[in-house]
Amino acid sequence: MPTLKLRMRTSAAILAGAAALTGLGAAVLPATAANAATPQTVAAQIVPANQLASFNQIISHESGWNVTATNPSSGAYGLAQALPGSKMASAGSDWQTNPATQIKWALDYMNSRYGSPNAAWNFWQANHWY
């Protein structure tokens, strides 16, 4: 039985992230601990809807939505693979562990450097980095 419960929780979390990214929002799913605050649902609340798909593509490629992802070669850190990671402190002192702080920093970075997440994703597709 414990395996079934784990699978159900994992499935709920995946569906919550997918629902948020497809514009259906987490409201389609019942509010549970499993789908309440994934980085993807946080991003859906912060990133403009018309930029969310591109933002998702970049973060998926850079970190797989892992808040503590660290590149062993460069030391790039977090969802957006900031280098150095400590520059995300400009968005909040909890930059090492808070997905909302990292998402706010990443959105600001994409807007200031490229004009938008959509433009950043166009650059990423051409160069495989941003």
Automatic annotation (TrEMBL):
Signal peptide start and end residues: 1-33
A Pfam family it matches: SLT
Entry superkingdom: Bacteria
Swiss-Prot/TrEMBL keywords: Signal
Domain Transglycosylase SLT, chain residue ranges per copy: 55-122
Name the record gives this protein: Transglycosylase SLT domain-containing protein
Organism whose genome encodes this protein: Streptomyces rubellomurinus (strain ATCC 31215)
